[in-house]
Amino acid sequence: MSTTDRYQQLTQTPPGKFLRGRLGLPESTPLRRHEPGDPVLHGPALVGGAPGGRLAKPLATALRAASVKTIKSLDADDAQAAALIFDATGITRSEDLAALHDFFSPAIAAVQASGRLIVLGTPPERAAYRRQAVAQRALEGFTRSAAKELRHGATGQLVYVAPGAEGNLDGTLRFLLSGRSAYVSGQVIRIGAGASQAPGDWDRPLDGRVAAVTGASRGIGAAIAATLARDGAHVVGLDVPALEDDLKAVAAGIGGSALALDITDPDAPRAIAAHLKQEHRGVDVVVHNAGITRDRTLGRMDADRWNAVISVNLTAIERVTDALIAGGSRAVLNEGGRIVCVSSISGIAGNAGQTNYATSKAGVIGVVDAYAPALAERGATINAVAPGFIETQMTAKVPLPIREAGRRMSSLSQGGLPIDVAEAIAWFASPACGGLNGNVVRVCGQSLLGA
Ligand code: NAD
């Protein structure tokens, strides 16, 4: 997928590189994105850990299964590592945080372009005692800052692995190390002990599964539909009747099917549930992607703008989800189902002119928090992605100066692509990721907005 980022194209030429350096302008490196057949990593991972950590073995097993070569030290000054991975679960008091410095300080310059930095910890809320909780909480500031110091498209994340969830590393490690997570950086991910199933084929983890995607006729929704189909799912795309032709074209292109309806229609939840039950014997993956903006500052916002945004972006998600999980064992959402919502960094950081939109998108995070326990009871999960600046028809219409600011105000100094959001959704949708429940992960290149 191409980008219209002229700044990035220009600064990749020799004169552009020279000028960028002289003027101190931000670096914007084309990111490594996943291509079919790509290995998880294009080089070795340097692996270390604080003494007493509990993840060395499960980490080694997961990396071996993903065909990642590991090394314990950098043998030459100019050696490079495709990833630095550190098991920090052994850190039980603040004095021991020095282990982070000892491991990463000499190695950080060795990270390759589009390389990865990963810190593994214990969720502070699952710590055995107070000092351990404090030290584990501190990992967040370290990882977010180290990720901001990485260059050339490299990214960094903190993964909290709950005690008992050590066997659930695979799906998340593969996602974070690979080009699939190109535009995800500075994130904190929690892996719990939910039931996971390793797919027979990691390139087609959704084989035999049915996925419903709202707002699938264009933009991010079309990329989500294509990505889930690539991963083996039969995709049922949903969109408004006015876009039925576009929706049918997207569905035909990926061997899926189309259901044209307005998700705010009072009858929509029943109609969606009935369609999925009758045509597909239920649904395995539901992606609540449809969304609209109706921007105005609060004093100038009429009730119609407010109501339209809340009803599409938030109320419809609640109503459709309720219809899909009603009925206990006869629910339309199959056992082990995955629900993934699309929030926004506006819903985290707030944005002037978007009180309606940010309310709806913060509400989407509320949906994840509120539904996660009930879904866990039936072996299902709910998570959200919160995109930052993504290159779509919508953002192409934004005036150039604001568009440029949106792109450059991230640690990766560029906008993301719809595929970046879609890959994160495919990660949450994987049967291997039953341990991910209640997460909100930003796909924003570590935007300077929103923490
Ligand atoms: P888009 O406008 O290109 O696509 C949204 C789709 O949702 C459209 O096809 C639209 O017809 C559909 N839709 C809207 N109302 C509907 C309804 N009532 N019933 C059924 N379908 C409906 O937008 P996009 O940029 O692809 O955004 C997709 C999602 O990502 C949205 O939830 C948006 O808020 C979110 N998001 C986008 C960005 C970005 O930078 N583009 C950033 C953050 C979050």
Q: Which blocks of ≥5 consecutive residues have pLDDT under 50?
A: none
Helix content: 25-40%
Q: Which ligands occur here?
A: nicotinamide-adenine-dinucleotide
In one word, what is the shape? globular
Q: Provide the β-strand percentage band.
A: 15-25%
Quickly give the CATH architecture of the largest domain: 3-Layer(aba) Sandwich
Distance between the termini: 28 Å
- Secondary-structure element order, N to C: HHEHEEHEHEHEEHEHEHEHEHHEHHHE
Spatial strand sequence of the major β-sheet: 9-8-7-10-11-12-13
Mean pLDDT metric: 94
Domains counted in the coordinates: how many? 2
Largest sheet: 7 strands, parallel
Please report the number of helical segments.
15
Find the count of extended strands (DSSP E, 2+ residues): 13
As a whole number of angstroms, the C-alpha radius of gyration is: 22 Å
CATH superfamily of the largest domain: NAD(P)-binding Rossmann-like Domain
Structural class computed from helices and strand pairing = alpha/beta
Give the C-level CATH assignment of the largest domain: Alpha Beta
As for the CATH topology of the largest domain, it is Rossmann fold
What topology emerges from the helices and strands here?
Layout: H1 6-11, H2 14-23, E1 45-49, H3 56-65, E2 70-71, E3 81-87, H4 98-107, E4 111-121, H5 130-149, E5 155-161, H6 170-177, E6 187-191, E7 210-214, H7 219-230, E8 234-239, H8 244-253, E9 257-260, H9 268-280, E10 283-288, H10 303-325, E11 333-342, H11 346-349, H12 355-377, E12 381-387, H13 393-396, H14 400-408, H15 418-429, E13 440-443
Residues 214-215, 217-221, 238-240, 243, 262-264, 289-292, 312, 342, 344, 387, 389-390, 392-395 line the site of nicotinamide-adenine-dinucleotide.
